[in-house]
Amino acid sequence: MKHTIEVNGLRKVFDQNAAIKDVSFFVKPGEIFGLLGPSGSGKTTTIKILTGELGQTAGDVSVLDVNSHLFGTADFRSRIGILSDNSSLYERLTVYDNLKLFCQLYDAPLEQIDVMLDEVNLKEARSKVVSKLSKGMKQRVLLAKALIHKPELVFLDEPTSALDPGNAAHIHRGLQKLNEAGTTIFITTHDMEEATALCDRVAFLDKGEVQELGSPDTLRYKYSTHAFHVETFEDERLVIENESGNADKIRELIANGEVKSIQSDNPTLGQIFLKITGKELV
Ligand SMILES: Nc1ncnc2c1ncn2[C@@H]1O[C@H](COP(=O)(O)OP(=O)(O)O)[C@@H](O)[C@H]1O
Ligand SMILES: [Mg+2]
């Protein structure tokens, strides 16, 4: 398999409005790939098409070497994990019994339940009825559900949007571990810090098209002014261009013990997105 996901010329029209106009990208095996965009930019629609929940209007889509017309098969569904807006739990069952049902559905060993509960930091909620859980806790049970059958590829639609920073960080570590063990991850988010911390490559989605694509580091370098921001102990802030003629200036500042901090001017992914699209990612 060359690419885990291949999307070519994808288009999706709802009631004569193109939510996705012409989108192409691929995801490599073992990558964490982030689809970033503001609300309404088509992230969820893309995930729904990639997981067979929605059909496309035009374009070629294949996932794990399976063409989109076979996304409904049990074999395909057992190879992917999904956490989306409409993932749901049985409210009147306990956390454990919910996960047990999904284990049985996918023929996964029941020992996986406690492994997953540990991963999502929910061991203490094992015997609680789902209706009594907070939104953030339910989100973590849904994540455990999406991963319980050890899929090769997982789709996560804004997985940490309902979580506090502590739990989000815990989930990030869990996803990194999962990825190190070989799972490919496709994640949508409007949280730029999350994307920067997690993703090998990101695509910026806006107006139904991919506006920019690359690794966070490559993009931050590409949109950098390549200047140094120097803060002195006198609270002066200097912007010094990265040119050979300025080497002595920087050397002198450091030699005189004047430099409190020095930083290269790499913009954040959020600043780059704003520059390209004129939109904040909220
Ligand atoms: N089932 C649907 N019927 C009609 N329009 C839809 C439907 N689903 C999504 N849309 C529209 O498609 C666009 C993209 O939505 P969505 O994929 O949910 O964006 P995001 O997940 O980036 O917030 C929005 O304008 C939304 O209103
Ligand atoms: Mg969405």
TrEMBL record:
Pfam families linked to this entry: ABC_tran
Annotated InterPro entries: AAA+_ATPase (IPR003593), ABC_transporter-like_ATP-bd (IPR003439), ABC_transporter-like_CS (IPR017871), ABC_transporter_ATP-binding (IPR050763), P-loop_NTPase (IPR027417)
GO terms, molecular function: ATP binding; ATP hydrolysis activity
Presence of the UniProt keyword Nucleus in the record: no
Gene3D superfamilies: P-loop containing nucleotide triphosphate hydrolases
Keywords recorded for this protein, A-Z: ATP-binding, Nucleotide-binding, Transport
Residue intervals of the ABC transporter domain: 5-232
Name of this protein: ABC-2 type transport system ATP-binding protein
